[in-house]
Amino acid sequence: MSRSESPSQSPVVRHAVSLLMGVAIGVFFHYLLFRLTLPVAPFIYVSF
Amino acid sequence: MIANAAWFHDLTAIFAPATPEDFGKIFDTYWFVIFAGIVLPAYWLLRRPALRLPFLALACVAYHYHFAGPAGMLPIIVIGTATYALGLTRRRLACAAGIALSVLALSFYKYSHFLAGEALGHIHAAWGAAADKSAGSLLPAAPPLAISFFAFEFIHYLYEVRRGAVPIRNPLRFLLFAIFFPSLVAGPIKRFTQFIPSLEHGARGVGVDDVSIGLRRVALGFLKKVVIADNLTLAIAFYGPVAKFATMTLPARWTVFVVIALRILFDFSGYSDIAIGLARMLGVKLPENFNWPYAATSIQEFWRRWHMSLTSWIRDYVYIPLGGNRHGIARRMLNGLIAFALIGLWHGPAWHFVLWGLYHGLGLAVCASYAKLPIAGPPLSRLLARQPIPCWLATQAFAWFGWLIFFYPVVEAGRIAGLLFTSGA
Amino acid sequence: MNPVEIIRSLRAALASKTVLLGALVGFGGMCLLGRQAARENHLSPFVRFTQWTSPETKYYPTIGEMTSLVRATVRPDQVLVVVGGNSVLRGVGQPVQRIWTKALQQNLGPGYGVVNFAFNGSTVTDAGAVVAEALRREYPRQIYIANASPAAPPAPAGSGVYWFVFWEAYYKGLLIDDPVRAAAIAEHNHYDVIGNPPGGAGLRELKAREWLDRLFYFQDFWNKITYRHVNTVWGYYMPGTTDFLRARKDYPDPEPDTLTYPMDVRYNPGNLAVEMAIVRGCSQYCYLSTDASGHFQMRKDASGRWPLYAPVWDDFAAGIKVAMPQELKKRTLILLSRSSPFYVRRLTADERERDDLAYIHSVAMWKAGGYDAMDYGKDFGVEDYGDRTHVTWQGGAKLAILVADKIREMSKNLGYLQK
Asked: Which of C30, C203, C204, C244 to mutate to test the interface with A (most CBs of A within 10 A)?
């Protein structure tokens, strides 16, 4: 994977943003486990 | 004694096939969470391709079995094996026979009642009824899961082999092409010439980047599907029915109209994102399915951005074989209409799906040809080329009104459309 | 650069390993927060569960929520009284300030701590029963109350709408390992698993969810968020508004005061026939005989007595036996609530006798099964009921007196009152 396109982006910022993004994803997956519970009628995939 | 143990019961229950009411919920089930939680780390830890691919194949078989059940697996095993064997011969006739087999299987499993009742039945009621009845006695309770995707991928495979492409010799790789679990139930529709190399590349060297990018994609997909689309679905279920719709204020009706269009995009593209993300976490790249379709400024562009794996399939294996645009405008329009009717029909065995397809086919035909109208065509075309926003509005309005035909019976769709322009009932 | 290119370059700039590390940290952190949330009481102030805190609006209370509430409101030196059961004990028709369990607490005094964990449509083995069982070590001096219909065998634990409470407690190791109960549950679920949906796939998914919750504690944390801060599942929760984001704690307890309803609203004349059929039905199949061709004969026998229909009572006895572990039965009080006298009065004398028999016999059967039981409502007035089964707050006040006496008696017999 190529490094940052913008040379002015420091590694600290890059890792901070990456960490935050990761934490957000982790938090979201935790919420997702909760949300899977709640029933919603399935959609059109049934007919496939 | 073992069979009485709670753990054995739980274990068999884990692998037991899902029941019909499960269909439709695949990625958004706890079974899948546990499945992915086991399969993905195991795949990463088995560092060698010689271990990874067989393991992945086993996982795909377990996944297919769980969601399709033995009744759903058997037809796929039969057709898949036939496709593989016929492909190996590299003979044109054998490949054609295999294509016919998939077409017949798809027609039989998914469209028997439709063809018997709706098509034949309108020509001759008694024959239609008899055909419907005999089909009913032969058909399983539900069509084999994802029969549409299987048929399309097998047809693509044999068509390309018939044209000279090298068939997949390795049965393990063919099995993985056939039942690759990320895209098994809801696409995207794969092309084997890209898939197999990607699969091998992933098995050799799936890396941290793949996992990270894939994970982000999966998260995005679930955000679109579970957080946004599922909520929109609940709202539509409440506000959507015409009786309720008629009691609402005009702004509220337009809100529901927008919500209907947003829901299908987020639901479908969300599922595709999850599929693409999961594959990426295995180091495999699947074709994209959606590319900001609601940004399209023409109907042609819309169809280059919406459900791309399906439209490109229809283009390559229906439109172009029928002649494409090589035989003049009239033929081109006809081919286009056939292609779109099939796109519609692919979504389900019902006339309103065909109607939706034809609606888009006609729109596309107009869009593609109006510039060639005598006198008015070229200046109109030049004028519109400089007006992206009106073009965008017109395109999206066309597409979004099309969703009414897709989701509601025709009469109701008409009523809803009408109610968008009057504030009364 | 256009927006697409900006997004692309931002995406390319992300450091993969750091993203994955962040994901692990984020998810792991949430699990810890979840465990913490399971030990806090966030349901305050709490009187009873309402539709906003029940599956009716997609809110699934957790064991952690309910046990934390108990710990926060009942001292270890108090006798814990968990009120389970259905809408009758939840106080439908009683405004929250005058709910019968408040009167019960007042009657019992500070030596007891009463919590109302009744849910609409809940059964003897549901919800409140599970909570009481889970708290048996922290609150060994406890009484569990539920209501039941005459001759109705209790539903197996872990079935029905509130099955999630049982299975959550099961996977968190909070329940007694009772083979008799386990066998009954397995048999009940067997029919579902071998291919009669609903139940098979639904149960499997439910079990998977609760097993995952034991690892990741997602239900407690996000329930807390939903209750205290923001709801994230669309629903038409409050007619007249599309505001679905409102926190559940901000919805008022909607229970009307049926004491203010005139009689013809409480006992709608148009429904008389239907209600009478239901009232008759309480005892109809308990006392009958079959003639030579197998038809039911719903009348007294030659000696002028109502004949016991054994299959119903055998089923009932069998259900009582397996409903809960033996050691919990003696601290369980089953209330059999009689129908409103408005309808009972309209039965024939023989039917009234049969109805009475059903209640008395049911109480006796529960007691024979090791539980404690009592019926109520026989000497209540028409005005004490808000409809056929639910009492008004005044009827609830009367009930509270009866139940308080019974609880004191049970506490004495169970040795709870020894210093």
From this structure: C30
